[in-house]
Amino acid sequence: MIIKDYILPNSLSEAYELLKNNKKAVIIAGGAYLRLQKREVPLAIDIENLGLNYIIEENKLLKIGAMTKLREIETNEYAVNELNGMLSNMVKQIGGVQLRNIVTIGGSVCGKYNFSDILPSLIALNVSLKFYKAGTMNICEFMESDLKSDILMEIIIDLNQNGVVKYFKSTYKEYSLINLAIARNKDGFNIAVGARPGRAKFAKLSSKILTNEKDIDKAGEMLLDELSFKTDFRASDKYRKALAKTFLLEAYKELV
Amino acid sequence: MIPIILNVNNVNYEIMVKPGEMLLDTLRKIGFTSVKKSCDTGSCGICSVLVDGKVIPSCSYFTMKIQNKKVITIDGVEEKAREIGQFLLDEGVDQCGFCTPGLIMSIIAMENELTEFTEENIKHYLVGNICRCSGYEGQIRAIKNYLEVS
Amino acid sequence: MSVNKNIPKVDGIGLVTGKPAYTDDLASKDSLIVKVLRSPYAYAKIRNINTLAASKVNGVELILTHKNVPDKVYTRAGQSAPEPSPYDKKILDEYVRYIGDEVAVVAGINEEVVDKAIKKIKVDYEIFKPVIDYEKAIGNNVKVHDPDCGTVRFDIGRDASKNIAASYHMEIGDVEKEFKKSDYYYEDVYYTQAQAHLAMEPHSAYAYLDLQDRLNIVTSTQTPFHVRRIIGQTLDMPLSKIRVFKPRIGGGYGGKQFIHGEFFVSLVTLRTKKPCKLIYSRKDVFSASNTRHPMRIKLRIGAMESGMINSLEMKILSNTGAYGEHSLTVLMVAGSKTLPLYNKVDAVKFSGDVVYTNTTPAGAYRGYGAIQGNFALESAIDEMAKLVKMDPIEFRRINMIKEGETSKIFEVMGEGTEGTAQIIKSCKLEECITEVKEKINWDKLYPRTVIDENTVRSVGLAIAMQGSGIPYIDMGSAILKLNDDGFFNLLVGATDLGTGSDTVLAQIAAEVLEIDTSKIIVYSSDTDLTPYDVGAYASSTTYVSGNSVYLTAKKMVEIMKDRAKKLLETEEVQYSNGVFKSKDKEITLADFSNEMYYGEDMQQLVASESYYGVKSPPPYMACACEVEITKNTGKLKVLRCVASIDCGVTLNPNLAKIQVEGALVQGLGMTLFEHADRSEKGTLYNNTFLTYGAPTKMEIGKLDVSFVESYEPSGPFGAKSVGEIGIDTPPAVISNAIKNAFGIRMKELPITPEKIWEAINNK
Questions:
Q1: pTM for the whole thing?
Q2: DSSP readout, C318-336?
Q3: Which phi and psi (to 5°) does residue C31 adopt?
Q4: What pLDDT is attached to residue B149?
Q5: Which residues contact C329 (CB under 8 A, 6 or more apart)?
Q6: CB-count burial class (<10 Å; 0-12, 13-18, 19+) for A2
Q7: In this structure, are C557 and C636 located in the same domain?
Q8: Which C-chain residues 348-407 have CB contacts (< 8 A) with chain B?
Q9: So what's the pLDDT on residue B150?
Q10: Are A96 and B126 inside 8 Å of each other by CB?
């Protein structure tokens, strides 16, 4: 990526003004994935100094600042002890420790990367995202929207849940061939699958079946039906489907 | 070009950088050739340096972020590097040597961060340090000896 | 004692503390930056190339295109002259033959300037349909090379009109006749992929003019002397005007045994008179340096009721990509360094074609054909063992080569030329197998253990051989110089890739001179200052370069003793452990050396000897892995990998061990993880570390490498080679383990989880 100008604003309002006035500007959180894109950008707005690096628990809600590094999430006591360790597990094999010390959860969410190991878990946990201008919205809403020109501040997670995340990698830290997350709260089950190779998606019908009928096999069938799985140079659709189904069964077993 | 002050090994460097310059290129430009470029995607650990005590891939870290932070390269921890290095030498795993400075910086960070040094923990922490020469087994032997864990 | 000792590497402390040591560290700060504009098409002709706008960019110093560089063909292969590779490459060509092929070279004062200029180069391509699939190359309408262009130094079976870069065949006995007699017969076809070397240091070259106005090239290379010769001959420069120096390099494994950026930095420096450097980007290393030769190997094996193999045939189709570097020699090694393992056959046949395709050129890579051949052969051996109803280890035992025996193949097949007969003077294959069998717990674990309905564990085994240098072709030499204070400079052309050869050679000299290794200061790989060495390949350094150091040190002892006689005024003198003794006088080496510089009868003592092998004694090894396979995902975990190697005497046991451990992981990488997928158009998908599949610390469980010592009389202190052999067995070991687990033969590398899953679930 070729960057023409680079600013580190000291307040959210300053950052937002810059963003609003520069349609082609990019927000730099960690920057590790963004820099690999082949394009020229007139302005980079780095949100390093806006105090968005924190993990706080408040009334059984976990609030994670957008600039929180993946390594911090991996080792944080809430991430390890709450939600069945799901938050820690979802980041464990994303690159090595070095990469996780600069990649942020906010950048990972906003990037909407197909290969993301994080998105399925956050979708299954039904997290809320707090944006500077657009306010708070459900992650699924964000994934479907084409919200641009805004700044993600915080991710809010209800801790009254349990979850299991699974991903398949040939070597330990490479991009997953498929990843799946399942969470259970008082209302039922939520399933999300990513790296299909398409980006993570909430499996609405499959989740419903599992919640209402507790029939994991039927839910598995529906999962393969409602979501699209494709072949790319890394894996075939057939294999991805088989892995997804296997992971769903295994994850469900672990969860209940 | 933007003027910045970069603190490396406790010395302030006043330099001009391009807006999108990566820390690795800046460090090499100043003269820290001990930090090497290999995969250029944050995937191999070769360019590892410490920023405020945390080990990061300098090829993927924007230099502009570094203001008011402290960077440590292997040149800033010569004594420790020799100490750890000797254990690597004693196993013969300092082969082509290209991955070694990055590995040593990561070992230093690991030593400061972890409390339990099982083989599993060590391997997980250092999995981001790719080595093509040694096959890793000897590195683990050396690191265990250094940590006095068996 | 200096040999068989774990002497730490002499450059160890410097490297681990990050001292400037590699090409890009040494390049002067004012070096021009050189970058290459590469072809986006797999096959095209440059109809027109316009560099006017590019040359006007402020800071651009030189732009090279095919129009302003010498039009000569040469081979980039780092091999002794006359090279057994076709001369089919030009410095810059009117034709581009793979995605990544060089179109233009730009030199400028910094990277931005060069990047800007490259963007402004206008190229008008005439695009041709490429040939990407090497199985469709022979006789294809698309011809990668003009049959009228390109030459060979001697007949290597090249026929560019058919897209054949080289071909070879040999037969001992009559295999068809023998197959008819066989009680059991097996044949199948195996495939291997275009593995990337993944040296952590990208290819780097730096050039400058020295005070004598000579071209100095500092480059990450395995073959400095070949580089000097090839550059000089192709640029029509006397070799006296060129110096090539290899600094520390960050890995090679064969990937730096060819000319990469050296021509470009040479031309830029010669024309601008300024220093310049070309550092490959990682993407260019993947797609525009070289790879392993992908091969299709057909293996036919026949055996008798007694269990004796009576007939063997290996037939290969090898893909050399756009240019033919190492095409014939890698092909031949696939047979010459595998088939002799089973020397009791009545007939053996080896043949193959190496074809051109419009893909990244293939070249030298650790194992050099032996790993591909071993995959097919050792898998077939297991298959035949099953047919004959013998345990695969017993089947190997009765058929494999033993000490004191020979194989006719040694005489017939060399590397590119005829071979050299040899009786095997050191071979501990039997002991290696016994050691591995016991350590892996073969009797208990073979063939498989069912852990639960979804998990199976099994074991697999394979054996291998390699060589030690190329007889009558690889030459090494050394110079020893005695300094005051009793220490020596050892000057060798031998190329340390990080393997520690500088250290091992110092150990050899120290052993002969009976002094501590610290008193031998090694300087290597400088075409001006060090004597000739062929370079680091063909597992030649310990054996060939080592022997030259051994002879040189022995000569030095003689020379010193002669002078000591004069000094001590005696007819007879003994030398041992750094002391010269006559009947009643003695003098230490240090004092002696001071006398040589400052005494009455002064002389600088120097010794120099050369060595070339008259045979290539093979190291041998056995390897077994215990694996665990999960049926519903196809994931294969290597729980343990046990290997036992006979490389003669291990001059430095630690360094030898690391060589094998590293090679095993590299071989397991090729077997299980490393991808080289290409689109139909020829684009390489896996051109970053993000998707290539480099093995990490977490991939392999426990590695257990040990050595069974033998004594090779022709090697320095009994040593053979160890640099390559470690990589050869993993593909067959894993394929055999999977066969033992599920009865399925995996025949295509890499053996990915999906392939295993597919095979299990679609039986």
A1: 0.97
A2: EEEETS-TTHHHHHHHHHH
A3: -60, 140
A4: 59
A5: C79, C84, C85, C368, C369, C415, C416
A6: middle
A7: no
A8: none
A9: 46
A10: yes
The answer to whether the Cβ–Cβ distance between B132 and C497 falls below 8 Å is no
Could you report the per-residue pLDDT of C731-758, keeping only the tens digit for each? 999 999 999 999 999 999 999 999 999 9
Q: Which of A168, A175, A239 sits opposite C690 (nearest CB)?
A: A175
CATH number assigned to the domain comprising residue C228: 3.90.1170.50
* Chain C neighbors of A246, CB-CB under 8 A: 632-633
Contact of A239 with chain C, judged by CB distance below 8 Å, is answered with yes
The 10s digit of each residue's pLDDT in A116-160 is: 999 999 999 999 999 999 999 999 999 999 998 999 999 999 999
Helix, coil or strand: residue C170: strand
Domains identified in chain B and CATH numbers? 2-74 (3.10.20.30), 76-147 (1.10.150.120)
Cα C146 to its chain centre, rounded Å, is 30
Total of domains in chain A: 2
Question: Distance between alpha carbon C361 and the CA centroid of its chain, in Å?
Answer: 15
Same domain, C318 and C240: no
Query: Across the B/C interface, how many CB contacts are shorter than 8 Å?
Result: 181
DSSP-based three-state secondary structure for C229: helix
Q: What angle do CA A66, A70, A71 make, to 5 degrees?
A: 135
Q: What 3 state SS string does C726-743 have?
A: HHCCHHHHHHHHHHHHHC
- pLDDT, tens digit (0-9, with 9 covering 90-100), for A200-239: 999 999 999 999 999 999 999 999 999 999 999 999 999 9
The answer to whether B59 faces chain C, any CB pair under 8 Å, is no
**Residue B138: in which H helix or E strand, if any?**
helix B137-147
- Which chains form contacts with chain A, at 3 or more CB pairs under 8 Å? B, C
Q: Same domain, yes or no, for C429 and C520?
A: no
For residue A90, the SS3 value is helix
CATH of the domain at C315: 3.30.365.10
Q: For chain C, how many structural domains are there in total?
A: 3
Q: Which residue from A111, A90, B43, A31 is spatially nearest to C691, judged by alpha carbons?
A: B43
Does A34 share its domain with A149?
no
* A123 and A197 fall within a common domain: yes
Beta-strand runs (E) in C39-161? 44-50, 60-64, 73-74, 89-90, 95-96, 102-108, 122-127
A30 and A153 co-located in one domain = no
Examine the domain organization and report whether A16 and A140 are in the same domain.
no
The SS3 assignment for C172 reads strand
One-letter amino acid of C374: N
**Which residue stretches of chain C have pLDDT < 50?**
none
C309 and C275 share a domain?
Answer: no
Which of C431, C689, C115 has the alpha carbon at shortest distance from B41? C689
Claim to verify: residue A70 and residue A166 sit in the same structural domain: yes
Asked, for residue C13, whether it belongs to a domain, the answer is no
Tell me, yes or no, whether A11 and A105 share the same domain: no
Nearest to A152 by CA among A94, A108, A92: A108
Q: What is the DSSP letter of C669?
A: I
Domain shared by A36 and A64, yes or no: no
Residue where the block lists tokens 């790993």: C371
Contacts across the A-B interface (CB distance below 8 Å): 84
Enclosing domain of residue A37: 2-46
Do C33 and C109 form a contact (C-beta atoms < 8 A)?
Answer: yes
Q: In chain B, where do the E strands start and end?
A: 2-8, 11-17, 48-51, 54-57, 70-72
Strand-pair partners of A55: A64
Q: Say whether both A15 and A77 belong to one domain.
A: no
Q: Give percent above pLDDT 90 in chain A.
A: 99
* A235 to C754: CB separation less than 8 angstroms, yes or no: yes
Residue-wise pLDDT for C247-301, tens only, equals: 999 999 999 999 999 999 999 999 999 999 999 999 999 999 999 999 999 999 9
Range of the domain at C490: 475-612
State residue C19's pLDDT score: 93
